[in-house]
Amino acid sequence: MAFALTAVLGQVPADAATEIVTPEVDWSAFMPLLVLIVGAVVLITVTSLVKQRLVPAVPALFMVIAPAAAVAAILWQGDNDDAWRFLVIAAAVFVWSAAAMSARSERPGRPVIGYPALFTIVTAAAAIVVSLMLWQRVTDPLDGPFSTLNGSFGVDGFSVFITIVILIAVILAALIADEYLRREDQDGPELYVLLLLSAAGGVVMAGANDLIVLFVGLETLSIAAYVLAAMNRRRVESQEAGMKYFVLGAFSSAFFLYGIAFVYGATGSVNFIAIADFLADSYLLKNGLLLLGFALLIVGLGFKVAAVPFHSWAPDVYEGSPSPVVAFMASGIKAAGFAALIRVFVLTFGSYRGDWQPIIYGLAVATLLVAAVLAVVQTDVKRMLAYSSINHAGFMLVGVQAASDRGTSAVLFYLAAYTFLVAGSFAVVTVIGRTGDQRHTITEYRGLAKARPALALAFTVLLLAQAGVPLTSGFFAKFEIIGAAVDARSYWLAVTAMISAVIAAYLYLRLVVAMWMQAPDEATVEAGDALEVPWGSGLAIGVAVTVTLVVGVMPWIVLDWADKAVPVLTAVTGG
Amino acid sequence: MIVTTAFTLPVLTLLVLVPAVGALLVALVPKDRGDLVRPLAVLVSLATGAFALHVLANFEAALPGYQFESEHSWISSLGISWHVGVDGISLFLVMLTALIFPIAMVATDPGHDKKAYFAWLLMLEAGCMGAFLALDLFLFFVFFEIVLVPMYFLIGQWGHGNRIYAATKFFLYTMFGSALMLVGIVSLVYLVARDTGEITFDLLRLSEVTTDASVLSPDTAMWLFAAFAIAFAVKVPIFPLHTWLPDAHTEAPTGGSVILAAVMLKLGTYGFIRFAITLFPDAAYDWAPVLLTLGVIGIVYAAIIAAVQKDLKRLVAYSSVAHLGFIVLGTFAFTNQGVSGSVLQMVNHGLSTGALFLLVGMIYERRHTRQISELGGLQKPAPILAAVFTVVMLSSIGLPGLNGFVGEFLILIGSFTTARWWTVVATSGVILAAVYLLWAYQRVFQGPAEGENAKVADMNLREIAVMAPLLALIVFLGVYPKPALDRIEPAVDRLVERVAEYSDFSQPAVTVEGPAGAEVEIEHAPAEHGEEEG
Within 13 Å of residue B457, how many CA atoms lie on the same side as its CB? Predict the structure, then answer.
């Protein structure tokens, strides 16, 4: 096979064909990816082979492993940064409590958290731990960022940061999905497996240093997401969402692929390092091919992050997809999309920023304003949050437009903060949607403060944070974006962004009004099935609210990480 | 400047923390002990008041700079710190906040969801205190914006008929202003950092360099001032950004209206003096004609609108817009008397309009209507109410001998020298105020009392106790404003000098004798007061 390939490419002389030169692989770079994929494979295999429910030994096993990991982290010698050690312990505590919840059931035969969800959480937590080890390595001044596979996959602070954000999105989505699936009577491992695979695609995108690798990641992420959207077999809207997402997504992938072809044609390479070097060294007399490539790549990635005018799928897909899946789409998939956007444009095409910045500028303005205005007139809460998520994407585009380290750090902070905000919000939406995942009009939220004050308060915090009220992570995220825009002298873009935030605030206020200031609809009262907040969703909401408030007061917790997570293109291979 | 040592009480920090912690405590009161909520909330706000009194008692009157300063790094990588301090300009606003909140808590009854109501009030107090004390732009912005949330819920949950519309409008208007200010603040900080290499949000450090044309070009300063000015103009509110105010005031519960009028509107006028003018004196001077014109339009326009209101509460709300127009006039005249008068008038307006809203609330509780046409002849069944209303109303009109006169007079004197024609037009506002308030009084309290109006109960002991401190201060500041002015003037002088130094503005020759002239006028006040009573 290698023979045939090299012969076709004609790069290797025929007599050397017997010596197959494979690129060196630094497996440690792929550890988070491998953990996810192995986890997914194990999950699908074991649940397919074992017909009856898993024995309680599984959570018991995790309950042993988690403290062991914590102890190992405490005893670990030989580094002076405590941050990751602290996080390992936190992850261990988290896994331990999830396992404990799983083992201790309220009703016989019904664990508080199902095994597939627990397994997914543990897998993602393990991937976070190995990511933290990578973080330790790339932020160490002696080691630093590196790339592997002939420089086609890079590991730097940026890729690790995005990886962790995606993994957090997986954990939160799994927590929400658990009760959802049991409620819909569709309990099974499929959703979790797809979640892990989609996340694996996102991790590839985060580290891709090569357009083809990026495309592979994008497709892995997307194809899993198409199926996830159509996951609820009984809801025709879910089927419609999956179909729509698939057709439009495939269309955008074609654009993206076409863009790759043009960029390859213009620069002679698909590798980011080679492209960047080529663009830095040579002056293109005719750059039409390259600019066309830019445009097509922007279309492809703009679709993934739902930037206007490539956004029209988002409200329909968000409305139809299972609510826990939307939590992942709006956080994890968005994070992967922005990772690609920054890596490709800010980093690789940095020397051509004068050409692509105006396009991103225009996209950002359109995204901010169109989403904010359209959000105001929605009556379906999932559609509302879909437009709100488009508006947030507009803010992040402002950070991309800055094309600076500050802008990148602001986008990362925004992604980290927004992941918790949106996952928490969709956890509330999942709870309110109740069996059938149908009850999503804003009238369902009326009088929630009376019926469920804690839930209403939590949702209010998440909504006000999205509106950008101070002392929440959402405010600081916007603050950072504005700082990056101003630093890049895009003053009017900053003003536009803030005005769109005010327009969008009306949307969040409408929900707050419904919860606190309006009496419940009579129809809702009559339909009257009691609102139960399941453990998993409750935990997800609690974590989201806590992080939102703590990061709002102590933003440096995330800010220091985001500042260190500057992407680099490096051909240095790790040892 | 007094240097705070490690051993002194961080009293200003406590002014913010005590009500904030109090709000949490109130929220944690168990459900079945609802009776504890109000006493606890009042106690916390009184404790805050005690700290404020401590500040007042130990305030060095002659010092122009910030006192009781304390600074702790908050977000060090961005040069953001918890920097609080008080000077003559903020001192009395802090006192006003400390006074109005316990009064509002004692005077008003939410009717339902008591716990949330008092918790929000305490959070609001913490936010207002923080905004008046902050000397860090980021910190100020946080407080300036965070006060929206409690007030939004107060209006939306405990307000009258159209409360949801009013609350949402209030939130969005103010947020619009602060959105622009945020861009302004961040732009300012990064522009300065580009030059000095140091990112800081500290007001004192920024104001050292913002006057330097090599750091901020005059054009940039103009834009930045505009960004700040719009935020404050919405909050004040200055015509034509005032339309949220009548709705918010009218639909808010009494406690909300009192605090909104007495304390929160001052965030706007205070913001102009403390931040917009201090940071950009030159741009402020260049923008002054615009703001003076809008302020004066506000005075006359709001007075005329107030005169034709059918709703008593709405009438008081429009009177607020007119009064704040005077404060804007005095501020942008940039003379010692004008600015001192404005600062004093902020306090005066807080006392008299706060009291007016309380009184309107009392009338509403008795009659369940605010329509002037449905009221009448209330002075027969409720003479004390009528008497108190008269004094407060006269203070609001600006009758010599009561506090409103001192402030208004200083503003008019101060602005006449530098903004003559604006002042001439504004003076008509004084007469118009008399027209709409006296006419309203006539319709509500005089004439025959018929039907329900004849059965109105007079003020009870609690209501008298609530009004007593306000009345005492209205008279005291009218008769003897010297202690207040002595503390306000050094800080104002410093600001006026700063404007004169860094802009084309120069103090008119007449005002060299200004302070003395002002004092002469003030000394006349008691005499006239005597005549009034005789």
Answer: 10
Q: Which helix (H) or strand (E) holds A413?
A: helix A405-433
Of the candidates B174, B391, B220, the one whose C-alpha atom is nearest the C-alpha of residue A468 is B174
Residue A81: its pLDDT value, please? Answer: 56
pLDDT value at residue A429? 92
Residue A433 — very low, low, confident or very high, per pLDDT cuts 50/70/90?
confident
| Token representation of residue A427 | 């956890």
Which residue in A301, A318, A314, A405 sits closest to A356, CA to CA? A301
| Res. A468: pLDDT tops 60 | yes
Q: What is the arithmetic mean of pLDDT over B367-389? A: 86
Please give the Cα distance from B316 to B306 (Å, whole number): 7
Which has the closest alpha carbon to B265: B177, B163, B349, B377?
B349
Which tens digits make up the pLDDT trace of A96-130? 777 766 665 555 556 677 778 888 998 898 899 88
Residues of A whose CB is below 8 A from B149: 464, 469
Inter-chain CB proximity B168 and A513 less than 8 Å: yes
Closest of B61, B79, B78, B81 to residue B70, by C-alpha:
B81
Alpha-carbon gap, residue B315 to B472, rounded angstroms: 25
Sequential DSSP letters for A283-351: --S--HHHHHHHHHHHHHHHHHTT-TTS-THHHHHHHHS-HHHHHHIIIIIHHHHHHHHIIIIIIITGG
- Using the beta-carbon criterion (under 8 Å), do A517 and B157 form an inter-chain contact? yes
CB A175 within 8 A of CB A539: yes
- pLDDT tens string A145-161: 888 888 889 898 999 99
Encode A149-170: b = buried (16+ Cβ within 10 Å), e = exposed.
Answer: bbbbbbbbbbbbbbbbbbbbbb
Angle at A382 between CA A381 and CA A386, to 5 degrees: 115
B157 contacts chain A (CB < 8 A)? yes
Whole-complex ipTM: 0.88
The rounded distance, in Å, linking the Cα atoms of B118 and B99 is 16
- Find chain A residues with C-beta within 8 A of B167's C-beta: 513, 517
C-alpha A245/C-alpha A315 separation (Å) is 11
The first and second tokens of residue A18, run together, are 């017997």
Residues of chain B with Cβ-Cβ distance to A495 below 8 Å are 180, 183
- Condensed to tens digits (0 to 9), the pLDDT of residues B75-122 reads 888 889 999 999 989 999 999 999 999 999 888 888 888 888 999 999
Do A401 and A490 meet the contact criterion of CB atoms below 8 Å apart?
yes
Residue B5, pLDDT > 70, answer: no
The angle subtended at Cα A119 by Cα A116 and Cα A120, nearest 5°, is: 85
Q: Do the Cβ atoms of B119 and B17 come closer than 8 Å?
A: no
Nearest to B189 by CA among B212, B205, B169: B205
Does the distance separating the beta carbons of A555 and B75 come in below 8 Å? yes
- Paired tokens of B157: 């949950």
pLDDT at B458: 84
How is residue B77 annotated by DSSP?
Answer: G
Tell me the C-alpha to C-alpha distance, in Å, between residue A114 and each of A174, A232, A342.
10, 18, 37
Residue with tokens 């898993």: A54
Distance CA A440, CA B388 (A): 53
With 0.95 as the threshold, say if the pTM is over it. Answer: no
Model confidence pLDDT, tens digit, residues A22-77: 777 778 888 889 889 988 988 888 877 776 555 566 667 777 777 777 777 777 66
What gap in Å lies between CA A162 and CA A128, rounded to an integer?
Answer: 11
Q: CA B172 to CA A452: how far, in whole Å?
A: 27
To the nearest whole Å, the CA of A458 is away from the closest chain B CA by 15
> What integer is the mean pLDDT of B261-285?
91
Residue B83, classed as helix, strand or coil, is strand
Tokens at A377, concatenated? 């007139």
